[in-house]
Write a structure and sequence with these properties.
homodimer; alpha+beta; Glycosyltransferase; Maltose phosphorylase, domain 3; 3 domains; 7-stranded antiparallel β-sheet
C-alpha cells in the first residue's frame, strides 16, 4: 500500500518550481528542528487528548453508532480539527516513522471511517436522526469545508507513502460531493472555502478529473450570490467572498482565512486548467493585500468582529486580529504562487509570516496557543485555566484550547510539514528559499544531488551549504537573499538574479558555498497612510520582527506610556537594546487640548525580544510599533 | 386626568439644580427648533410607519389575540422601540399639542395595553404559547430592559400632564416586577440595564417606594455574577457590567449603552437613598471614562464586536463605534450628574455629545440615521435602499431603518425633549447650560421669572438673554462659559464662578444680558497616549467638531491621502478653511521600509464642515483627525 513519496502538501502538474517530497528534504535540527520535536512530542498529543476529552473525536463514534442526534460535541466544524490532526500525524509519520504514533493514527482513522455513510457522506453535525438535514446551512454549516480538510489529510497520507484507509474514505466522499454538487447537481458553494484546494490536490494525486472539475465549479460559482440563507448580520456577502467572482476581485477582503483558502484553491484550479486570467487575478489580489492590508508580522485581519481584512491601510496594531490560521493560509497561498512563478517575493512573505505570525501562536512547550496575534497588548493578559476552553480572542496568555479551536491543529500540521516549504528543484538545479538546518536529496536532469544546509538562522546570518553528492555536469544552486539583506555576501562570485544568488557550476562532494546575511537590528518605518502607527517605528533583526515587552522595562512601567528615539538602537552581547523614555503627561480630565501637554520623561534601557517569543514570561504589555519615529 | 407638568425625563427628590418641566422651558426656533420640527413632522411618523410595516407594532396585536407564538416580528427587544416612540410622542405632545398626534398616540397605547397579561406582565417575545417561557433568557432576552423603556414612556406621559392609560399599564407592570424580582423574589438582573432608571423615575412621580426598592435591588445584585446563561462568546461578564459591583468599578467598561444606562440608574438610586459612596463611584467612572475612553465628539465605544468601550486611550477613529444610543446614554448620565452637583463639566459634555455625536445620527430630513458614528470614513459608503432594513454598522450613508433599530426612536425621544436639558432653576436663580432660542418661565423663591434666550449658536457665539418678567428682589442668572471660550465676554461686570458668569442683581422687564463666546476655529491636539491619532490634529469651532469630507476636496481626492499644517487654518466668509496637501507616496509593494518614502505633494484649499452634517451630500470619505499635527 505504498504511494510515491514526492511533493508536499501541494504538487502542481505544471509549475516553474517542483516541490520536494518527504524523501527529498528533511530538517535535521536547529531552530526549526526544535519546533518539530516539540510539535511531535507535545502538540500532536495535546490536540488528540483535548479532542478526546471534550468529545470532538467521540462525535465520530456516536455518529457511527447512530446516537449522535442531540449529543454532538462542539460547533459544526469540529470534524475539521480531527482531520487537521490526522494531517499533522501523517506528515509527522512521513518525517520520522514512530510505531506508537502510527498505531494511534490508524486507530483514529478507523473511528472516522466507521462514521462514513453508505453514500460516502461524512459529517457528524448533519443528516442523522435528530440533526439538521445535510446541506441545509451551506452558509455556516461548514460541511464541504470539513471535507476539504479530510482530503488534505488524505493527500498527506498518500504523499508520505501510504495508500490506505483514509485515502479510500476521501475518494468515496469526493465522489459523493461530485454527485451532489457536480455539473448536474446543486448550484451551490460552501460558506467557508477550503474544499477547492482539497479537491484539486486529490485530483493531482489520484488523477481523477472529476475532482478538478468539481473544484473548478466551486470557484466559478463563487461571487454569484448563491450564499443566501438567513440575514448575515454584520457580515454581508463580502465576508464569504461571495460578493464578486474570484476572477474579478481586486484585493483580499472579508474573512481572512476564507479569502486566502479561496485564493489558494482558485490558483490550484487556474494552474491545472491553464486559466491565465484566473491566476493573474489571484496574483493581483495577493499583491494588493500585501501592499496595503498586511501587518509587519505578515499577519492579516484588522477586524475582530468578522475576523476580516480591513480597508486599505487600516492596520491598527492594538486591534490586530492576525489570526494564526490566516497566517497559515497566507503561507499556503504564497507557496502556491512561489511554485507557479519562482518569484522570491513569495518566499520572503512565507518567511516573514512563519517566523512572526504563525510561530507566535504556540507556547514554548507546544501546549498552548494564540488564536489571534495582536501587535500591541495594552493590558497584561489573564492566565487561562489549563483545563478550560478559552474564547479565541481574549486578552490572555496563550490558551490550551478554544471553543473554536482551528489554530492548534493548523499549527500542528504546518510544523509537521514545514521543511517541505524550504526548498524546491528544477531540472537544472536546486533553490533554497528558507534557511536552517536541513538536508536535501533529489534527482536533477544531470543526476542525483545531496546537500546539507547549516545555519543559526534566524538569529545568525551565516548559511553554509555543503555538497554531499553532486552530478558531474554543472547545476545551478540558488540561494534566496531577503530584501532586507542589502549587504549579503557569498563565498564565491555569483550573480544576484531576481532576489537570489545563482551559483551555476560543477560541484564536487565537500564543496562549500557560504552565504552571509547581515542580521543587524534595523529601524523600520510605516507607510504614512497607515494612520494607526503614524509617528511610530519598529525594530527588525534579520527576518525577525522584535517587540518591546513590559517585563523588560523597569518595574511598574507599561509599554503604553513609552517612546524612543530610533537612533538609540544598540546591539550588545547579541541583544538588541533601545533607550526608551516613559512619558508622564499628568492627569488630564479630557484627552484633547489646544496645547501640547508638558510631559516629564524618565528613561531606561530595554532589551527587545523576538515577537514570536513574547508572553512566555507571564502577563505583560507589549508593542511592536514604538512612538518616536517621526 | 392631569398630572403636574414639572420636571423632565429626570426629577430627583434631592439635587443641587432643579430641572425645568415642559411648562417652564420651550425651544422657540433656531438651530434646535428646526430639529424639533423635523423630528415632529418626519422622524416620529417615520418610526411609526416602519414599525407598522415590519410588524413590530403588530406584535402587540398578535400577542393580545394569542397568535404571537411563531409569528413574532424582529428580535427580542423590539417592544422597546415602540415604547421609545411612545416616549417621543409624549414629549412632543407636551411641547406642541397636536390633535392628530394625540389620536395616533392613544390608539397605539390602546394596542399595547391590550397585550398586557392579567398579572401585569407585558412582553411580546416570551411566555405565550409557542414562545420561550418568561425570564428564561435574562442574559439576552431584554424583558426587563423593555419594561424600563415602558416606564420611561409612562413618566413622559405623566410629566406632560396626563395620568391615563400608559401610566396605568406601567404601574401594573412594575408591580409584577416587584412580585417576581423583589426582596422575596428571584435574585437576578436583566442582561441589559435600563429598568433601574425607569423604576426610580416611576417612584419619583408616583411615590411608590417599592419601585425604588426594586431598582436598589437590581443595582446591588449587579456585579455579583447572577448572569450566567450560555457561554457569552466574545463578551464575558464585563460586557454586562456583571464583573464588578457598581460601587467598586473604577471606569466604564463593556457594552457602552449598558454601562451608561446602568450608571444612570445607579446614580438615581444613590440620590434617592442618600448613598454617597455609590454616587461617588459613578462620578469616578464618568471622570475616568471621559479622560481616557471618550472620542472628541463625545462618542464612546471603540469596539465593533461587542459595541464596547476599549481600554484606556484605545480610541481608533476609523473603528470608532460611537453608537448614537451610547451618546444619548452619556447625555442621560451627565444630566443626572449635573443636577446632582451643579458642576459645569457635565453640561459641557452634554453639549459636545449632543452636537457632535447624537446629532450626527439623523439625516437632514429626519428619515435616515447612523447607528454608529465613525470619526474616519475610509471608503465612500454605499447608498442604502430606502425600503430595506440595514445592518447597523455598515459603511453606508444614513439608513432608514435597521435590523437592530434602537437609534431612530432614541433620537426621536431625545430631540422631542431636548429643551428640557438646556436650563435649570434653584430657589434663587436660573442656570443656562445650553444656548439657542428658547424661553423660560418659572417660579423662584422671590417670584416668577420669564426669560427669552436668543442665539445663532452653535455657529454664532452671541447669546442674548432678555428679561420678560422678573421678581422685584435680586436673583442670580448663571450663564455657562464653555471651557474652550477663554475670551468669553459678558455685557456687564459679573464674576466667573465655576465655569459660569453669575449675574446676581435685581432685574427689570426688558433688561438684556449679552454673552459673547468666541467661536473662532481652533486647533486641537490629542493626548500622546492615544496611539491611533498620534501626529494628527483636529479643528473645532465653538462647540462644533469639524470634519474634512472628500466632497470638499478636488475631484478624485480621498481624505485618506491628505495631511495639513495646522498653521494654515483660516476663516473666510464664515467658512473654515485649511490648506491640505495630498501625498503621493508612489506604489510600494510592502508598506514598511527602512527609509521614509519620497513623497510628492499637491495642495488644495478645503472647507471643513461640522461633523454632524457630514454624509449629506452623497457618498464620501471623511476624517476628523488630520495628519500633520506633530
Amino acid at each position: 500500500m505504498s504511494a510515491a513519496r514526492t511533493g508536499g502538501p501541494v504538487h502542481p502538474s505544471h509549475a516553474v518550481l517542483r516541490p520536494l517530497g518527504p524523501d527529498e528534504i528533511a530538517i535535521t535540527g536547529g531552530f526549526w528542528g526544535e519546533r518539530q520535536v516539540v510539535n511531535a512530542q507535545a502538540t500532536i498529543a495535546h490536540c488528540q487528548e483535548w479532542m478526546e476529552r471534550i468529545g470532538w473525536i467521540g462525535n465520530f463514534d456516536r455518529a457511527a453508532a447512530g446516537t449522535i442526534g442531540g449529543s454532538h460535541a462542539g460547533i459544526e466544524f469540529v470534524d475539521s480539527e480531527v482531520y487537521k490532526l490526522l494531517e499533522a500525524m501523517a506528515w509527522e509519520l512521513g518525517r520520522s516513522h514512530d510505531l506508537e504514533l502510527e498505531a494511534r493514527y490508524n486507530a483514529l482513522v478507523a473511528r472516522i471511517a466507521a462514521a462514513q455513510e453508505v453514500d460516502g457522506y461524512l459529517h457528524t453535525s448533519f443528516g442523522r436522526d435528530g440533526q439538521p438535514t445535510r446541506y441545509s446551512n451551506l452558509e455556516f454549516g461548514h460541511e464541504l469545508y470539513c471535507f476539504g480538510h479530510l482530503f488534505q489529510a488524505a493527500v498527506a497520507r498518500l504523499r508520505t507513502g501510504y495508500d490506505d484507509l483514509l485515502p479510500q474514505v476521501a475518494r468515496r466522499l469526493a465522489d459523493h460531493v461530485y454527485m451532489v454538487f457536480g455539473p448536474t447537481g446543486r448550484d451551490a458553494v460552501c460558506g467557508h472555502p477550503e474544499i477547492e484546494m482539497g479537491l484539486v490536490e486529490l485530483f493531482r494525486i489520484t488523477g481523477e478529473r472529476r475532482y478538478l472539475e468539481q473544484a473548478e465549479l466551486f470557484i466559478a460559482r463563487r461571487g454569484t450570490g448563491t450564499l443566501r440563507g438567513a440575514a448575515f448580520g454584520p457580515f454581508g456577502q463580502e465576508y464569504f467572498q461571495d460578493d464578486v467572482p474570484v476572477r474579478d476581485a481586486q484585493t483580499m477582503r472579508g474573512h481572512a482565512v476564507r479569502a486566502l483558502y479561496l485564493a489558494s484553491g482558485a490558483l490550484d484550479v487556474a494552474d491545472e486548467t491553464a486559466d491565465a486570467e484566473l491566476a493573474a487575478a489571484v496574483r493581483l489580489q495577493w499583491a494588493n493585500a500585501v501592499a496595503r492590508r498586511t501587518y509587519l508580522t505578515g499577519g492579516v485581519g484588522s477586524h475582530h468582529q468578522d475576523e476580516a481584512y480591513g480597508d486599505d491601510f487600516e492596520l491598527p496594531p492594538d486591534r490586530a486580529y492576525a489570526e494564526t490560521c490566516a497566517g497559515i493560509a497566507s503561507v499556503m497561498l504564497s507557496w502556491r504562487l512561489l511554485l507557479e512563478s519562482g518569484d522570491a517575493k513569495y518566499a520572503e512573505l512565507i518567511e516573514r509570516t512563519l517566523l512572526n505570525n504563525v510561530l507566535a501562536s504556540p507556547r514554548e512547550d507546544g501546549r498552548a496557543f494564540y488564536y489571534t496575534n495582536t501587535l500591541h497588548q495594552r493590558i497584561p493578559g489573564a492566565v487561562p485555566d489549563e483545563h478550560e476552553l478559552s474564547h479565541r480572542a481574549e486578552a490572555s496568555l496563550r490558551a490550551p484550547w478554544f471553543e473554536v479551536s482551528c489554530c492548534p491543529t493548523n499549527v500542528a500540521r504546518t510544523l509537521a510539514s514545514v521543511g517541505l516549504y524550504f526548498a524546491t528543484a528544477t531540472g537544472d538545479g536546486v533553490q533554497l528559499h528558507q534557511y536552517g538546518d536541513y538536508e536535501i536529496s533529489t534527482t536533477l536532469d544531470a543526476g542525483e544531488v545531496r546537500l546539507r544546509v547549516s545555519s543559526g538562522y534566524p538569529f545568525d546570518g551565516a548559511v553554509v551549504v555543503t555538497v554531499l553528492q553532486a552530478p558531474e555536469s554543472e547545476i545551478a544552486l540558488r540561494l534566496r537573499v531577503p530584501g532586507w539583506a542589502v549587504d549579503a555576501a557569498l563565498s564565491e562570485d555569483a550573480p544576484l538574479i531576481d532576489g537570489a544568488f545563482e551559483v551555476r557550476r560543477g560541484f564536487a562532494t565537500g564543496d562549500i558555498v557560504r552565504l552571509d546575511l547581515p542580521v543587524d537590528a534595523r529601524v523600520t518605518f510605516p507607510d504614512q497612510r497607515i494612520d494607526a502607527i503614524r509617528g511610530d517605528f519598529a525594530i527588525e533583526r534579520g527576518p525577525l520582527v522584535l517587540a518591546l515587552e513590559s517585563v523588560d522595562l523597569p518595574e511598574g512601567w507599561s509599554v503604553n506610556d513609552v517612546e524612543a528615539d530610533p537612533a538609540t538602537l544598540r546591539s550588545r552581547e547579541g541583544a538588541t537594546e533601545l533607550l526608551v523614555a516613559r512619558r508622564s503627561p499628568g492627569e488630564a480630565t479630557w484627552p484633547y487640548a489646544s496645547d501640547r501637554p508638558q510631559i516629564e520623561r524618565e528613561t531606561a534601557t530595554a532589551r527587545l525580544v523576538p515577537y514570536y517569543a513574547w508572553a512566555n514570561r507571564g502577563p505583560s504589555t507589549m508593542r511592536i510599533w514604538i512612538p518616536g519615529g517621526s
